[in-house]
Design a protein that fits this description.
Blueprint (H helix, E strand, L loop, with lengths): L2 H10 L5 E4 L8 H11 L3 E5 L1 E3 L6 H4 E3 L5 H13 L14 E6 L2 E8 L20 E4 L2 E4 L2 H10 L20 H14 L10 H8 L2 E4 L4 E4 L1 H7 L2 H7 L3 E7 L11 E3 L9 H13 L8 E2 L2 E2 L4 H15 L7 E7 L3 E7 L6 H6 L8 H8 L10 H11 L6 E5 L4 E7 L20 H12 L5 H8 L3 H13 L3 E4 L6 E4 L5
Parallel strand pairs: 1-2, 11-15
Antiparallel strand pairs: 2-6, 3-4, 5-6, 7-8, 9-10, 11-12, 13-14, 15-16, 16-18, 17-18, 19-20
Length: 495
């Protein structure tokens, strides 16, 4: 790499994927936390031999190239440590990921840490899965929460989440009318299928919704069976962390908050199949349907309608139903917003490209595919992109929100020229939940010091400094006076 490449990296300012360390004579201990954090999040670049003043507002002055004293020795130590399996549980680096650059006669070591594959996460240090696993949040490395760790461990299982056997949940917990509606659709799509002749229990066994444990001779529903076809009460008992919600905020009049809403009110069994069956027609009823005939039958299923079905299907099969969260579908005049608990198993760019699918809920995926919901493996998201492009609508936006442990898909139903800047705002500029906590602490005590904030939030002082710098850059807070005798000023509340 050349001098201009280094400065290009520094000028990007995407510090969620950039870490600078002075590292004059050795690989600093904090590097390994960053290595784990980058590997468990979206990857990133570490520059050894560059110092950073996190309190400096001017980005042009924030970084100083200081160089390392012996690049060859540091690189050798790095490779020896990472290959020993004593510091980290896995080496993700290849030779081309570690380079030495010369900037004005000073040597800098550039380390590109790739995102770890879902099957190898979590990446952890010091042989300590619980305390040695880190994630990247905007500008800092932080310990993975227990919930995040469990999610990554679940994701590493190729068999998926929804095969889980639910002890003491039986056919008595299945809503038979729901299952019968599904079977009618199944028979329509597969009229000659041998499963059509099976009773309900054997049918569910074939679908993966019911299982028999050969080891201890127990049997019962799987997660897929209960969530897809179960009665509402058993589902809420077993998955009290999960909510399903549809809200229509289109065509509002006056101070009306919403025009339609579907949440559990006792009028429907709130399982996933009923949620899909009710929500999709409501979501798509205003999409244009050209009049065309196929023989004597009207054909009005457009690529956009199929794309919406695919989007709702994706929301279900990629959700992590073991997390606290809401399966939410929102309808606006200019967009649909679909949100599900869980983070992405694959990088966003790989999802946009298609060709590979790694669903969390493989049995649900198969169930839905057999009634015509869901495309072939890896082709679903490209189908959505193609359908939206056909209408010249703004490109669908897939947003991962690590702080909320959820993924959001925004489907705009307006042309590019009609979309305001607010629609495409950079979500990375929004403050994080941790920064909101810091802001609340400052509201209560304007003289609060960074070490005190660190103790109250249980994160490092380095991370607190970065959060403070972000809040200052956004013009939300400022500092008056010195570090010891000064105070914080809240200039404006975050939006």
């Amino acid at each position: 790499m050349e001098k201009k490449d280094i400065y290009n990296i520094l000028n990007k300012g995407e510090r969620v994927t950039l870490e600078c360390k002075k590292a004059e004579n050795s690989v600093p201990k904090s590097f390994w936390e960053t290595y784990s954090a980058f590997a468990n999040t979206n990857g990133g670049t570490v520059l050894l031999g560059v110092s950073e003043d996190m309190m400096e507002k001017d980005k042009a002055k924030r970084y100083e190239v200081t160089g390392v004293n012996d690049a060859d020795k540091i690189c050798k130590d790095l490779w020896n440590t990472i290959n020993s399996n004593e510091k980290v549980n896995i080496n993700l680096l290849h030779n081309e990921d570690v380079q030495v650059a010369n900037v004005d006669g000073k040597e800098i070591i550039v380390i590109n840490v790739p995102r770890a594959d879902y099957s190898t996460r979590p990446v952890y240090i010091n042989n300590n899965l619980t305390r040695g696993s880190f994630k990247r949040n905007h500008e800092g490395d932080y310990h993975c929460t227990e919930q995040e760790l469990r999610m990554m461990v679940r994701d590493a299982n190729e068999a998926g989440n929804d095969r889980m056997f639910l002890e003491d949940y039986t056919m008595d917990d299945i809503d038979i009318p729901t299952l019968e509606k599904f079977r009618m659709m199944f028979k329509t799509n597969n009229p000659e299928h041998i499963w059509n002749g099976l009773d309900h229990k054997d049918f569910l066994i074939q679908l993966g919704g019911y299982t028999m444990n050969r080891k201890d001779h127990t049997e019962g529903l799987t997660m897929a069976g209960l969530l897809m076809f179960g009665k509402g009460l058993p589902i809420r008992e077993r998955f009290d962390n999960l909510r399903m919600d549809y809200i229509d905020k289109s065509n509002l009049v006056g101070d009306q908050r919403y025009s339609d809403r579907l949440t559990y009110d006792g009028t429907w069994e709130n399982n996933l199949f009923n949620f899909i069956r009710i929500v999709i027609p409501r979501l798509t009823q205003d999409l244009p349907r050209p009049f065309s005939m196929e023989g004597v039958i009207r054909k009005d299923d457009t690529p956009q309608h199929r794309a919406v079905r695919e989007a709702v299907t994706n929301m279900i099969i990629h959700a992590d139903f073991m997390l606290n969260g809401t399966l939410r579908v929102e309808k606006y005049d200019d967009r649909f917003v679909l949100t599900n608990p869980g983070l992405l198993k694959l990088p966003i760019e790989q999802i946009y490209a298609g060709g590979e699918s790694k669903s969390r809920n493989q049995r649900m995926q198969n169930m839905l595919r057999m009634i015509g919901y869901g495309e072939n493996l890896g082709s679903g998201f490209p189908l959505i992109l193609s359908a939206w492009n056909e209408k010249h609508w703004l490109k669908p936006e897939l947003i991962e929100q690590p702080e909320l442990m959820q993924v959001k898909l925004v489907l705009y139903i307006e042309n590019n020229k009609n979309v305001t800047k607010d629609v495409t705002k950079d979500v990375t500029k929004e403050i994080t939940d941790r920064q909101r906590i810091i802001l609340e602490l400052i509201r209560k005590d304007k003289s609060l010091t960074i070490p005190e904030m660190s103790l109250k939030t249980n994160v490092t002082e380095r991370t607190i400094k970065r959060d403070i710098a972000t809040l200052q850059e956004l013009g939300i807070i400022s500092r008056e006076g010195g570090r010891k005798d000064g105070s914080w000023i809240i200039k404006q509340d975050e939006e």
